[in-house]
Design a protein that fits this description.
Elements (H helix, E strand, L loop, with lengths): L10 H6 L1 H25 L4 H52 L1
Length: about 100
């Protein structure tokens, strides 16, 4: 017995929502970069500044890397989802022309 494979009608729209999410994450990267630059230029090079940089610079770089990976994942999921939605739509069109 054949099974029916269905996709939500708004599947394509749902995956298109990944683009605005990705843009929000881009904004986060810009803000963290801005904060990082401010910290690097403001903390100074005295003992206190050096201690600050020792504790703040690496975690900030890790945070920036993480946010960029989140953006890449959102972009990938969005594109793949849009392609899957298009495949479902094409399959539906093909099936309706056969019946």
């Amino acid at each position: 017995m054949a099974r029916e494979l269905t996709a939500l009608e708004d599947l394509d729209k749902a995956f298109r929502n990944f683009r605005p999410m990705s843009a929000l994450v881009d904004g986060m990267v810009l803000k963290v970069d801005e904060i990082d630059n401010f910290n690097k230029n403001s903390a100074g090079n005295d003992d206190i500044g050096k201690e600050y940089h020792k504790n703040a610079d690496k975690p900030t770089a890790v945070l920036i890397s993480l946010i960029k990976r989140v953006r890449k994942t959102l972009d990938s999921a969005g594109m793949t989802g849009e392609q899957a939605a298009a495949l479902f739509s094409n399959a539906d069109d093909d099936a309706s022309s056969v019946v």
